[in-house]
Design goal:
The protein has 13 helices and 6 strands. It is an alpha/beta fold and 315 residues long. The chain starts with 6 loop residues before the first helix and ends with a helix. The chain binds adenosine-5-diphosphoribose.
């Protein structure tokens, strides 16, 4: 059996990240109860995750029973994970997922105590590094080397700064804004209160608090009124102003959500063209930023961004 891990394998597994980062989903997704039914009776999503872990070479043929103590060290000393390479992650996935076949509560426990999510976060960091390396090696024409498209939850990313699609008050809301405030904790709202709002198209910065990201750049996208109210230019300004702020704070890596494409109703493809074009333009003339990640929430947004990136590369 091949045990090769490619960017593609990693992306397929990372697509399941949200399954483990949503607290509400945990017990539902692994239905160990009621045991009288079937301890291995999973939700559809969880079942396809297990299948993918096997198919994508994250479960490998090795003596995981002899490695149990080593696996346990990663649970008790989470710092160790920051040094784990991809073959160590394969062993960890194998130990925890395969073991679960024999002991229904094991993987559920690893998800409950956050260890499984930590493994995913490490995988994500490895993925980002590989993307960067890949882009440099292959040098996509017209597409700036430092950019990548990632599908998942922006609050999980270990980058210097994540961008928030905020509202004018900067006092939190739903969508990505809500997710960022929840993950950062109440201190973020307290700092936001000191900023006295933000005009549409502008950007303001705060610390990231409990987020893995050090900074949050809050920008307010335009509400979509049909496209004739200056929405395109306003959205472009969100990207420009966020990037300018990032440069002022010597930020090296930054992740953007698809600003305005949720509650504010901006058509996704049109918004993604603006986002990618503005970032490319900025990176051409500014050298300080090393990595820009476009974060897509869901498969259709991811497919859309990849299509636009591809078109821009070929144009
Ligand atoms: N990670 C990454 N992207 C996310 C996440 C997440 N955790 N959650 C949502 N998204 C995506 C959405 O799928 C959408 O494509 O972010 C994009 C922007 O959607 P919204 O969060 O709805 O933001 P926007 O359209 O700019 O509307 C802003 O929504 O919640 C309010 O306070 C916010 O009033 C403001 C408005």
């Amino acid at each position: 059996m091949s045990t090769t891990i490619t960017l593609k394998n990693i992306e397929i597994i990372l697509a399941f990240l949200t399954l483990f980062s949503d607290k509400e989903a945990k017990l539902y997704d692994i239905q160990t109860e009621p045991l009288t039914l079937n301890p291995y009776c999973y939700s559809k999503e969880f079942d396809s995750f297990i299948t993918s872990v096997y198919q994508e070479n994250f479960v490998i043929d090795f003596d995981w029973t002899a490695w149990e103590n080593e696996a346990h060290r990663f649970v008790t000393d989470p710092e160790l994970l920051t040094l784990a390479d991809i073959s160590t992650l394969q062993k960890l996935f194998t130990t925890h997922v395969r073991k679960e076949r024999f002991c229904s509560g094991h993987l559920a426990g690893m998800i409950e105590n956050g260890h499984f999510l930590a493994i995913f976060n490490r995988l994500q960091a490895i993925h980002a590094a590989l993307m960067l390396q890949n882009a440099h090696n292959n040098g996509r024409p017209k597409m700036i080397k430092q950019t990548s498209v990632f599908q998942g939850d922006i609050t999980q990313l270990q980058v210097d700064a994540i961008v928030n699609a905020a509202k004018n008050s900067l006092l939190g809301g739903g969508g990505v804004d809500g997710a960022i405030h929840r993950a950062a904790g109440p201190e973020l709202l307290a700092e936001c209160r000191q900023l006295h709002g933000c005009a549409t198209g502008e950007a303001k910065i705060t610390k990231g608090y409990k987020l893995p990201a050090k900074w949050v750049i809050h920008t307010v996208g335009p509400i979509w009124y049909g496209g004739n109210q200056g929405e395109d230019e306003m959205l472009a300004r969100c990207y420009r102003n966020s990037l300018t702020l990032a440069e002022q704070y010597q930020i090296k890596s930054i992740a953007f959500p698809a600003i305005s494409t949720g509650v504010y109703g901006f058509p996704l493809e049109r918004a993604s063209r603006i986002a990618i074009a503005e970032v490319n333009k900025f990176l051409h003339s500014h050298k300080s930023l090393e990595q820009v990640i476009f974060v897509c929430f869901g498969q259709s947004a991811y497919d859309c961004y990849l299509k636009v990136v591809q078109e821009l590369a070929e144009s």
